[in-house]
Amino acid sequence: MSTAQDRKNLKPKDYKSEIKPIWCPGCGHFSVLSAITKALAHLGLAKEQVALISGIGCSSRIPAYVDTYGFHGVHGRALAVASGLKAARPDLTVLTAGGDGDGFSIGGNHFLHACRRNMDLTYIAMDNEVYGMTKGQASPTTAPDWSHSKLTPHGTGIRRFQPAAIALASGASFIARGFSGDPSGLARLVVEAIQHPGFSFVHVLSPCPTFRPEQRAWKQQVHPCDLETTDNPIDAAHAIQSDDGRSLGIFYIESLPVWRSEKAAQRSLSRIEQEFLV
Predict the structure, then answer these.
(1) What is the pLDDT of residues 186-202, one digit of tens each?
(2) Is 224:249 a contact under the CB 8 Å cutoff?
(3) Rounded to whole angstroms, what are the CA distances from 118 to 79, 135, 171, 176, 234?
């Protein structure tokens, strides 16, 4: 176990594993990885007290690149696994990572119920509005007129999924949006999300230069949110619905009851370990 002094001396690079990322050059996920390690170092969290859970997709490779406990799960089930872990080990800081396909398509139902259950989890969703790992199909957040996929050469014609609006309507108690092109600003959002007691949703705009090269323009399009953070869901809904999708910052924070497993809270780690002895 690391001591408080050891943790105080940890730098962002100390939270990176020896495995090198294999994302495409220029992928926004590199900066998300940087933001996460900066946040962990800022908080001085012990590596053995952090677990990073993911599903499937380019973004979901991230647990392998962070030197904490990690679990690379199955498609769309990252929040289900993370919820089970937090219920059994409420002492852990549990982070969940995924992409717009993993989190809002096959994992959409888990997203809704994780928001309303309000367990003390942080969900970092990297959104590039495309299925990058399977070579460029439209995702739930793709604009209806995007026509650069062979599967949808005339666009999907379907209204895009609105992550922040859905999170608010589903009961999330912390909703923010960051940009991978600003890893320091994103790190600050992740720090606040981890510190918030309850379900924290950080929507990250993370460009895919391979299948969505036009997203390089996001660097000039993003801007701070015009409105102050609110704890009023009506004001937050107005801000989110009137937003252009490029605003950065914290939209909504509210103090809501946090779901905890009373049974797990009464069981010590040594008791759990005893149950696994053969």
Answers:
(1) 999 999 999 999 999 99
(2) yes
(3) 12, 34, 7, 15, 19
The torsion angle over the Cα atoms of residues 55, 57, 62 and 68, rounded to 10 degrees, is: 20
Distance CA 120, CA 251 (A): 18
DSSP 103: I
Total structural domains within the chain: 1
Alpha-carbon dihedral angle through residues 184, 188, 190, 191, given to the nearest 10 degrees: 130
Measured distance CA(65)–CA(27) in Å, rounded: 15
- In a domain? residue 8: no
What does the alpha-carbon distance between residue 56 and residue 272 come to, in Å, rounded to a whole number? 29
The dihedral sign for the CA sequence 65, 74, 146, 150: positive
Burial class (CB in 10 A: 0-12, 13-18, 19+), 201: buried
| Residue-range definition of the domain harbouring residue 156 | 17-275
**Nearest C-alpha neighbor of 63 from the set 55, 73, 53:** 53
* Residue 273 pLDDT class (50, 70, 90 cuts): confident
Whether 9 maps to a domain, the answer reads: no
Q: How far apart are CA 70 and CA 167, in angstroms?
A: 25
User: Is residue 155 domain-resident?
Assistant: yes
Question: Which whole-number Å values give the CA distances from 240 to 64, 162, 163, 268, 278, in the listed order?
Answer: 33, 9, 10, 42, 53
Q: Which CATH number is 213's domain given? A: 3.40.50.970
In a domain, 12, yes or no: no
